UniProtKB/TrEMBL annotation:
This is Xylose isomerase-like TIM barrel. SUPFAM superfamilies: Xylose isomerase-like. Keywords: Isomerase. Gene3D superfamilies: Divalent-metal-dependent TIM barrel enzymes. GO terms for molecular function: isomerase activity. Transmembrane segments: none annotated. Residues 33-255 form the Xylose isomerase-like TIM barrel domain. Pfam families: AP_endonuc_2. It comes from the Bacteria.
């Protein structure tokens, strides 16, 4: 189980397969797919993000969860993160999330993907701090991900909430597509406290940025590109972030190929980008 720290020396970044890249797969199938494709780790979606996704028995000690744990053990893959927790106005942290956290701890996760779905950022901050307290009991860290179709739309808002939260067990998750579409820069990333960055999500995208929230949502969920296949400067982005943290490849693409083929292509792209980022650091 990988738990990065701000003091850790620079190491080769572990590369993880994110659920959205192969969203049709259940968690047990995802573990097998990630292992066969050659990833170092995997992320698992225990709570579906939309009603269009299959509803699976993925919270609690269900047969599916026990089988997923068996496959993680057999493959030796690291479980980088679990998703997705939404902080809403009506959220009650322990009531709503305790079983999810217990499941994640059983599977061996270290990070949680969290979205802010509450326009009251003071209340959202309080909920995030409460989640951080409870998650710490399970060895897990919540990471707030800004995205344009939530109530935390960009990096600046996310950073303000994490800073206000002031909790040592909270991270800020940078997603390459949202970072680029919000016109953020490597300088914005370099200004963040390194201890906030527990892992990072990468993909690529076309040069033209959508102009509506609906188009941003559609692109983010179904029409990204594999790393290195688009116009996002991933090398500069990665160069501004802590070197050793895991990279999660979240790249749902418009390509009707089997999950294993898409996963292998995603990994090839990620490795090429990481090699370029490493070369640039050595030349600097």
């Amino acid at each position: 189980m990988y738990r990065p720290t701000a003091e850790a020396p620079a190491v080769t970044r572990p590369i993880s397969l994110a659920p959205l890249t192969v969203v049709e797969l259940g968690p047990d199938e995802m573990v097998d797919c990630a292992a066969r494709a050659g990833f170092d780790g995997v992320g698992l979606r225990l709570i579906r993000a939309t009603e269009a996704e299959p509803l699976r028995p993925t919270v609690g000690m269900t047969p599916l969860i026990r089988e997923t744990r068996r496959r993680l053990d057999d493959t030796g893959l690291a479980l980088i993160d679990i998703e997705v927790l939404r902080l809403k106005p009506q959220t009650r942290i322990r009531r709503d999330f305790a079983a999810f956290l217990e499941t994640g701890a059983y599977l061996g996760a270290s990070q949680i993907l969290v979205t802010g779905n509450d326009p009251d950022h003071l209340r959202l901050t309080d909920h995030l701090a409460e989640l951080a307290d409870l998650a710490a009991d399970y060895g897990l860290t919540p990471n707030l991900e800004p995205m344009p179709w939530t109530d935390v739309v960009n990096l600046q808002q996310g950073a303000a909430i994490v800073e206000r939260c002031g909790h040592p067990n909270v991270g800020l998750l940078v997603d390459a597509l949202h970072y680029d579409r919000a016109m953020n820069t490597p300088a914005d990333l370099a200004a963040l406290p390194t201890e906030w960055i527990r892992y990072v999500q990468i993909c690529d995208g076309v040069a033209e940025r959508p102009t509506s929230v609906e188009a941003l949502r559609d692109q983010g969920r179904t029409a990204r590109l594999f790393p290195g296949a688009g116009n996002i400067d991933l090398v500069a982005m990665l160069g501004a972030l802590p070197q050793g943290v895991p990279v999660s490849v979240e790249a749902p693409v418009l390509w009707q190929a089997p999950a294993i083929e898409r996963s292998r292509a995603a990994l090839r792209g990620a490795r090429e980008v990481l090699d370029l980022a490493s070369d640039r650091r050595h030349l600097a």
